[in-house]
Specification:
Blueprint: E1 9-16, H1 21-40, H2 42-45, E2 50-56, E3 60-66, E4 69-78, E5 83-92, H3 104-118
Antiparallel strand pairs: 1-5, 2-3, 3-4, 4-5
Length: about 120
């Protein structure tokens, strides 16, 4: 469901590769790397947009993209379960409700926790 300009939109996705986690985990890590690279380069295809990576870890990242569209995105690779989780919120036009500042690590931790529960023994 889409909302009018100025209202926050939400997209959440979980991608999971079935089968052997050695293979699926490698695929998840590769896809994560490609997604981070694409996000860093988004200004090349959309010059009015400006990406800023706000948390950059080997398997977790968050970013804000500013411009005509304002986007907050969070991405987690969980190779132990062959899974990637993504959460993105965006608005076009001036936001009717200002963005509440939340620590990026808090959001990223909250995204990993259900994966640890769903894939038993995948977290230490």
């Amino acid at each position: 469901m889409t909302h009018p300009d100025g209202q926050w939109q939400l997209q959440a996705q979980i991608l999971h590769w079935r089968g052997d986690t050695a293979r699926g985990g490698a695929i998840a890590a590769t896809v994560f790397g490609a997604a981070v690279t694409a996000l860093r380069a988004c200004q090349l295809g959309a010059p009015k947009q400006s990406p800023s990576v706000t948390d950059d870890e080997p398997t977790r990242m968050s970013a804000v993209i500013s411009g005509p569209v304002i986007m907050h995105t969070y991405l987690v690779a969980h190779p132990a379960s062959s899974t990637i989780s993504e959460l993105t919120l965006w608005t076009s036009g001036p936001a009717q409700v200002e963005w509440s500042v939340i620590n990026d690590s808090t959001v990223l931790d909250a995204m990993v926790a259900p994966l640890c529960e769903a894939y038993i023994a995948s977290c230490s």
